[in-house]
Amino acid sequence: MTEMIPSFLLPTPQCTRGGVAVGGGPLLITPAAQALNAHHHSEDDNWGKGAKHYVDVVHKMISLTGSGDILDYGCGKGSLQELLGFPIKEYDPGIPGKNAPATPADIVVCASVLEHVEPDCLDGVLDDIRRCTKQLAFFVIPHNQDLLGLHLSVHPQAWWLAKLTQHGFAIKHAMEFQSLPSEQRGHLILGSRTFCLTYPV
For the chain, N or C: smaller number of CB within 10 Å? Predict the structure, then answer.
């Protein structure tokens, strides 16, 4: 049974919130999707800059593990590293220079990423995140569609928790939050998202 997330790991109230294959392994993103990601990163200054919504949780995970060894999986423009104020590992298939195979870390952060993964690539991506996770993995997963059609894997919380379990993550804490109107920026549909803390098994 999923436990309620403890208060010390909760985000602050304003939060609710790569053709790449690894070592001959499963495809993580098709060339078409990779090109689309790169396009949005170059055209939209806000695309891939959502770390302000969960950086407080990451600080608490650092305290919990005693480690600053962090991988931002789907790092976008690197706003998490900027807000933390120290170097971390970064992977994003849509960012040149950050699209090499991800490097394992004690803490893996995968926030507002999985909903963008193509359904046929999702199992490969989750296996890759599990490969990279040494101690903790933290996921933020929106459940809503967006007006631009960029959310390709849209499912309710129960579906995602089962999927994470299937791919070797023990669900320790999960909570569903409603999106805020201030997050919409004109192209998102109001919905909910899951904050989920997991351990590798």
Answer: N
